């Protein structure tokens, strides 16, 4: 029984012949490739095992080059470590200090800010306005006190004129206060003159009456003397029988009347004298009281004037404080963190100035283990904690002072010995402020003191040698 049809067998035959042709062509290509790839003896080498081929293969040029490069680099590193050097640095923590104190401008009283025309870093001249405050209250106080001083001054001058009984003039062009005191002077002197005139008039009237009484007494005494003589004459006539007794009686009656009138007049005169003495005393009392009152008023007025003048001086000084001015030329270090219109309390810091030429330095604490490396005059690089050196850079300085003895410095629960050192900065505070570095006493700093140079090899080997010498020594 036939499985494949004639047509199928024909197709298989064609496929077999095609496969044989393809295989022959492939062997021919392989022979050609081997002939091109390998020359004499290379065919055997190509069919060796991989391990044997690698072992017998020559060393590549790149491997030789890499080895030589490593050896050269190692030699260069050793040479560089021996000949090269690095700075020997002693690090000493410390802080900024100054021999010239900062100028701290504070408010004298609670004030409202009107303007702040300066900013940190600005250089200001002596007398330049730093902060302006609202002057309304200060100006009102000054105006009120000036009025009071003018009034008290005019009042004092008026009282002095009244006591000295001298004129007090107040012209229309004079101040209102003086014109007011001029009116008071006129009223006071008019009242004084009227009172004194009244009392003087009474004294004059009493004097006139006393004068009349004295004249009357003198006349009555003469009449009394005459009456006595007349009585004697009539009495002798009666005794001689030449006169009538009635005439004697009439003469005696007349003498009695004259005596009574004389007695009455003398009594009236005594009363008038007492009245005059009393009136004179009242007049003198009025004068004494008037002078005493005016003296007291004058003393009080002078005292009030002195107090008002002192208060005015203070108020004028306060008015000057409505503008804080720089007491010396310098650089603005800090201003109060306030906006326009806000209030500064009494004695609150408004502006801090660094005077021109302020001598800043770093007060550093050098560990006792590093003191042998230091000497005055060495260069110092200073880093500030508040101003990162990556952004602001470092400060240059010189080691100027080194303490001869150590002092204990307590850090936490431990205490260690340090030497105090002073580093003078090469730039003053004003120059640094222009760079944005607003230095002030107390800023934490780190002084890196350059003590010399050492080789890189010693830098690398010293820790190893120290460890080798001090290590593995525990009991």
Automatic annotation (TrEMBL):
It is found in: Cell inner membrane. Keywords: Cell inner membrane, Cell membrane, Coiled coil, Membrane, Transmembrane, Transmembrane helix, Transport. GO terms for biological process: protein transport. Residues 291-318 form a coiled coil. GO terms for cellular component: plasma membrane. Residues 360-452 form the AprE-like beta-barrel domain. It is a single-pass membrane protein. It comes from the Bacteria. The keyword Lyase does not apply. The chain crosses the membrane at residues 65-83. InterPro entries: Beta-barrel_AprE, HH_AprE-like, MFP, T1SS_HlyD. Residues 138-316 form the AprE-like long alpha-helical hairpin domain. It holds the Pfam family HH_AprE. Belongs to the membrane fusion protein (MFP) (TC 8.A.1) family. NCBIfam families: type_I_hlyD. This is Membrane fusion protein (MFP) family protein. It comes from Rhizomicrobium palustre.
